[in-house]
Amino acid sequence: CLHLLSVDRDLGDFFALLDRQRIDYAVVLTADHGVMDIPERLRAKGVPQAVRADPALAPAEVGRQVAAQLGRKDSVLRGEGIGGDVWLDRAVPAPLRDRAARAAIQRYKDHPQVHDVYYRPNIMSLPMPPGDPSKWTVFQRVRASYDPSRSGDFYVVLKEHVSPISTPGAGYIAAHGTPWDYDRRVPILFWRPGMAPATRNEPVATVDIMPTLRAMLGLAADQRLDGRCLPGVQGIVCDPR
User: Fold this and answer.
1) What long-range pairs does 35-38 form, CB within 8 A, spacing at least 24?
2) pLDDT single digits (tens) 212-225
3) Separation of alpha carbons 195 and 221, rounded Å
4) How many CB atoms lie within 10 A of CB 50?
């Protein structure tokens, strides 16, 4: 909260400086991901299912249990945190990889804090979902975020309001990578001095920012852009498409 107050103050000082210099400017603010509040505060607000993840769900821990099943000593899994992308260790030989992955997936699925686990072959067999992401299933949201050249061998989705941060720490309250709306949705704000306030209710995406700024600057449209110009933002005229 103190960080947000500081950012707000610093931006206000910067915009005031631009105003004094009579500089024409526009502002766009967004975020790289949303946030789930800390589970302790959520429970106080009446969300009883808000908890911290069981440390036993860490890839190294699950990987050690699977290694014992396979007669291996070291953990067979690697990951950057609880939930999200999980990789099989490169040292696992090819004949054992599918067996190790399926054993790990089953252990995750048996845990009461896990919503579901999606295996790479199943993810890649699902068509890329079209339309409004708010109407997608969890599996479709995972598919839309999955990059076969970078993503894990399987993807673990914790249940809604289960924080992937098992142990509280100063300055560490949120993480990337869940398909739940509190993480998936981010604010997008356009502002210019004198701009009339307005709220957009239809779904927009971060890829819409650049085409909108392009129109604001009066640059030629590029049909290859992923996003679309957002009509109604002050100072722009969107090209018909």
Assistant:
1) 35/173, 35/174, 35/182, 35/183, 36/161, 36/163, 36/174, 36/178, 36/180, 36/182, 36/183, 37/173, 38/163, 38/168, 38/173
2) 998 888 888 777 88
3) 24
4) 20
pLDDT for position 241 = 52
Q: Max Cα separation, the chain?
A: 71
Query: What residue type is assigned to position 20 of the chain?
Result: R
| pLDDT value for 232 | 77
Contacts by 121-127, CB closer than 8 A, 24 or more apart: 123/151, 123/155, 124/148
pLDDT tens for 65-98 read: 999 999 999 999 999 889 999 999 999 999 999 9
**CB-count exposure of residue 76 (10 Å: 0-12, 13-18, 19+):** buried
Q: Which residues of the chain have pLDDT under 70?
A: 171, 235, 240-241
